[in-house]
Design a protein that fits this description.
Length: 219
């Protein structure tokens, strides 16, 4: 999920060391802070390169839909469309049928961070996106069991959100208790909290977006 271009070979080496095959390469959204290695990794492994069906890109990809399930041996991945950080953002809910019927962990991309949430101002209207993010969190993520483990794509130091913890993982129950943005009393309070401060844009953001959208030559 969300591989960087510089890490493509490391993914391949790891899969080979475990005797595994890369069948799907998934970007949770169009990246604005780094060159995606998704298409490169897919081309090297013969895997499907996947984005949410709404992704605005200039190349062919395997479209994912909300609620779709991808089987991977004993596990399956359920796609949750969670717009807000970007319109095409998704989270990936993973269940291991050999361990139990409930979701095991959630790959949250840039939708939910440890201690924070994704910034809403990169795709366009910050307020509109913030309201979409609130609905995504409250309709798709917060109803999941408290035991679900949370693995975001970034932690402290990234410009994709403010106030992120340096811890790379958590549980949904812990985030419900201690992530201040998940306990806001209203949508309006949430929107005000995440739009009141202007964060710096990622360096070379427009060039990175163009490359990840297939509208500029890849490195």
């Amino acid at each position: 999920m969300d591989p960087q271009a510089s890490d493509a070979d490391a993914y391949i080496d790891f899969a080979q060391s475990k005797g595994m095959k890369v069948s799907h390469v998934i970007d949770t959204h169009i990246q604005a802070d780094h060159i995606s290695g998704g298409r490169l990794l897919a081309s090297k492994t013969g895997a499907a390169y996947c984005l949410h069906e709404s992704a605005d890109v200039a190349f062919d990809f395997t479209p994912l839909t909300d609620g779709q399930k991808i089987a991977c041996g004993n596990t399956f991945i359920k796609v949750l469309h969670t717009p807000g950080h970007t319109p095409e953002s998704i989270c990936l809910q993973v269940t291991d049928k050999s361990r139990g019927p409930e979701p095991w962990f959630l790959l949250t991309g840039d939708t939910l961070f440890i201690g924070s949430v994704g910034r809403p101002d990169l795709p366009g209207s910050a307020e509109v996106s913030a309201r979409e993010l609130y609905q995504s969190l409250h309709r798709k993520i917060l109803p999941l069991p408290d035991t679900v483990e949370i693995y975001p794509s970034h932690f402290s130091g990234s410009v994709c959100g403010a106030g992120m913890s340096g811890k790379p993982a958590s549980t949904l129950g812990f985030e419900k208790r201690f992530n201040p943005l998940l306990s806001m009393s209203s949508e309006d309070e949430f929107v005000l909290a995440i739009t009141k401060d202007t964060l710096p844009k990622p360096g070379e953001m427009m060039e990175i977006l163009a490359r990840n959208q297939g509208r500029a030559q890849l490195l």
